Amino acid sequence: MNWTEVKIYTTTAGIDPLTGSMLDLGLQGFMIEDAQDFDEFLHDTTPRWDYVDQAVMEKMKDCETCVTIYVADNPQGMEELMQVRQILARLKAQDPDGKYGRLELEMKDVDEEDWSNAWKKYYHAMDIGRRLAIVPGWESYDTDRIRITMDPGLAFGTGTHETTRLCLELLEQ
Fold first, then answer.
1. Predicted confidence band of residue 19 (pLDDT cuts 50, 70, 90)
2. Rounded to an integer, what is the distance from CA 30 to the centroid of its chain?
3. Most buried residue, 91, 97, 130, 170, by CB count within 10 Å?
4. Hey, which bits of 10-122 come out as E strands?
5. Closest CA to 80 of 107, 60, 98, 52
6. Triad 3, 79, 2: Cα angle to 5°
7. Cut 0.85: pTM above it
């Protein structure tokens, strides 16, 4: 199934009326990006962070508040989209001063991925110490090293954590 990503541009003041109206319709899954939160983060990072990626900081500094939802590319999804458009029209009518922002939609098609397997493309074999290699079960890895087959999971991760690496290096010795 394909989906449509719908970004609705608003303001911090417009988040509650917009999301409250969507909840009244039964639309519960949405993501909020609040420019005010980003601005507060940009000006108050020292006590909480010892490193912040500059590229992320640059992107955040010019962001606009938006609420994102996903609607299915089917009749039900199109009905939900029509209802969202009605909410926007109602909020615009109630907001002659524009305190809720522009209340405009931006849409793009999104293909559904097999999320249960898509993450595997980010996890590959890695050498540890002088003689060990951690290799996921689905990947072939031709090596003279001692192969440890390990698939990431909830109980034991990917093997990339420093504690795991140090323990493996100690075992190797």
1. very high
2. 11
3. 91
4. 30-33, 66-72, 104-111
5. 107
6. 15
7. no
Q: What is d(CA 69, CA 108) in angstroms, rounded to the nearest whole number?
A: 11
Cα(32)–Cα(137) distance, integer angstroms: 37
Burial class (CB in 10 A: 0-12, 13-18, 19+), 31: exposed
Q: What is the pLDDT of residue 98?
A: 93
Amino acid at site 97: D
| Whole-angstrom distance, CA of residue 110 vs CA of residue 163 | 38
Asked if 111 and 4 count as a contact pair (C-beta separation under 8 A), the reply is: no
How far apart, in whole angstroms, are the C-alpha atoms of residue 91 and residue 4?
22
Q: Write phi, then psi, for 33 (nearest 5 degrees).
A: -115, 110
Average pLDDT on 137-166 reads: 79
